[in-house]
Input
Amino acid sequence: MRPLLQVSGLTKAFKRGGRGVPAVQDVSFDIGPAETLALVGPSGSGKSTLARLVTRLIEPDGGSILFEGEDILRLKPKAMRAMRARLQIVFQDPGSAFNPRATVSRAIADSLKIHTGFSQGERRTRVRDLLERVRLNPDLAERSIHDLSGGQRQRVAIARAMASSPTLIVLDEAVSALDVSVRAEILHLLKRLQRETRVAYLFITHDLGVVRAIADRVAVLDDGRIVEHGSAQEIIATPQSPTAQALVAAVPRLRLQAQ
Amino acid sequence: MSLAQRISRAPEAIAGITILICLMLVALSAPLLFPGDPLAISGTPLLRPFVDATHWLGTDRLGRDVLAGVVHGARTSLLVGLVSAAAAIVLGSVVGTLAGFAGGLLDELLMRVTDAFQTVPGFLMALAFVSTIGPSLMVVVTAIALASWTAPARLVRAEVLSIRERDYVASARAIGMHPLKIAFREILPNALPPVLGLSAIIVAGAILTEAALSFLGLGDPNRVTWGGMIAEGRAVLRSAPFLSIIPGVALVLTVLGVYLAGEGLVEATSRRSRA
Output
């Protein structure tokens, strides 16, 4: 099967005090349709940079990103904006991911306005529809994002990402800011949405407990490079690299299972 | 707590808004209170205030009613002050947003233009502008706007620079929103509150600049202005000081009202953002 996303040789350095500090170095991986690839690594390993590179929110210094067979780094701004319908991202902090003035319905309808020819009435129906799909009360539509809890906001963020019927969603630490019970609910929701729509996830996290719950495959990132690659079970049961071993050791219940 | 409630807790805001509302009522009802041309001669010249019931604040050197002049002058002052400040804020916001959001060459270009405008004293620029093109209300408004758009431009740019790195701007890009729409719909509204704080100072400054232009004889000659009245009274300052003092007091009251209302409004909105 042809991969949905094919990243090869991706490199990015940030300028700090006149020198380039490498953030991502020669990273390659691919994701198939309806697959979940977890990208794990300690903080500072370049995970979030990679999330923004893959969604082309920042431009890489080198490498290529083939998405649905097209090199998105070569797309002109207009074509890129159209492509974004199928390539979405959910950020870590649901508190800052929304315009502070936005209502729930505006946050979601903006995406519909850009990517569909729906009338205002159709958009309203679709917003309620999407809210139901992320298990939120459709009556929340006219509320301000400010009034919602962290978990509810993250559901709205997922609804916004789902609005344009994407084939890949990058989840950048999307459950890390949530408390444990809410986290489990959101993971459950993500799995259900994947079954329903065959969307693929690039799941970025530092928490292997989350990885076990959702990922098919895992790539371990350290210092901007991929140091280990394998199925989720393999890496949790028999981590090879010191980075992966440290990440496994950081989750007590995983360590117990590994013994 | 609603904005109205927060304002009602700030005494300076109440004072300022009361002054402004009274002024606006007076300005709006000027044609009813004093129908006819306020520049027309209506009585004995140089009548003192509080002696004649028909000319309550007296008359000037030509016998024009001072109260009618003050009331009609309020129209000019408020109109020029509000319109030119609004124009300055709109222009400054657009320039600041584009510069801050686009960055690079456009930012450099717009900021150097801003520098150029800022290095010329605002009042001199307005003076030069009006004396070249000729005094009319439109020209005066344009001149004052051109002299005062730089401060909001810089402020908006600084705000935009900090806002454009936030996640919600990245979110807007991620859903494929057009950059101009991101700049003006997602970023600008969130960059405005500090500029609105500045707006009171801009309005007050605009009213004073208009008065100063009129004082120098560069106001619209077909309109009564407070600055013009002060200039007019200057010739008889020793014998009839009230001719300059009365419009002067009106000017002070207006600027004070604008300033207090602005302060109170900023206070009230910042209380919300802290909550």
